[in-house]
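Our platform keeps sequence and structure together, in a single record for each protein. Such a record has a labelled line for the sequence and another for the backbone structure tokens. The tokens are whole numbers drawn from a learned vocabulary of local backbone shapes. The remainder of this section carries one protein's record, kept here as part of the documentation:
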Amino acid sequence: MTELEAGRAQTLAPVRSGAALHRYRDVLIALVAFAVLASLPLFTGSKALLDFVIRCSAYGLFATSLNLLVGYTGLTSFGHGMFFGLGAYSFGLIMQKLGLPIPVAFVATLVITALIAAVIGAICVRLKEIYFAFVTLAFQMLIHSTILSWASFTGGDQGLRGGIPRPAFLGIDLSNHVHLYVTSCALLVLGLLAMRQIAQSPFGYTLRMIRDNAARASFLGIDVWRAKLTVFVLAALFAAMGGMVMALFVSGAYPEFAYWTISGEAIFINMLGGVSTFLGPMVGTVLLLLLNDTVTRYTEYHGIVLGVVILFFALGLRKGLLDFVAEWFAHRRDAGEGR
């Protein structure tokens, strides 16, 4: 080893050790979070609360996957919901038509999603920001129209009827509500941990560089198109995971899962929670579902209330809630250090 190589190794060693420390910390946090969520049925018999957490798992995976595009890469997708719907329908159809074991159907759904996302992404990521957003929306509407028109296969506007078979595997019976709850929590934690590792990896920092200045990133030798396509496919896979959780929860799949409004909800969730902090979309998911559940209980004009909330965050805080809290703590810390 030359002196230059030795010096470079010494320089990179603290960086690598710091990255490894953060990785172990994230794994520890994920294990603690899963333990807390999984033990919840031991302390409460509320089926409504468990259902709420399952819904948070589905939408949390979906919204956080969108933030890989929006917050980390600067790609605003108006059609990201197509992969949520694609995951729900692919999984449901595989289970209904082929009757495969659930783990096999899960993997097969991810493969189907990856292939379709690669084709769509190869077209979309070449486009400028506004065109990217609207072309993804066009593809979502195409998939939604296909679901409606292919009624003999997808059930049309009635969705997949007859329920989704849930054969037991490895001692797990997803027809049991507690087993379904724990499995949903496991998928949520694993999905978030995987996305966290992506965001904190060298690839994640490459995405940030592309977001800040794609031309400079290209000048430095980064294949911008390939990086965008890779994150587009990865985001699609995590969105499909959310769709599968929702399909298991409702034991079916419905055209609304692939309609453009589901993408709007994901964007709204990111606005509520924030896009510059990793857990912002999860906070936004909890806020949106609480708002929907609470407001619809008292008034049928829930759209007006949600509109007011959007205005508050857009004009008042001018950022998501977790972004606001993180910035406030940073200011307090800086002020304390300056004394």
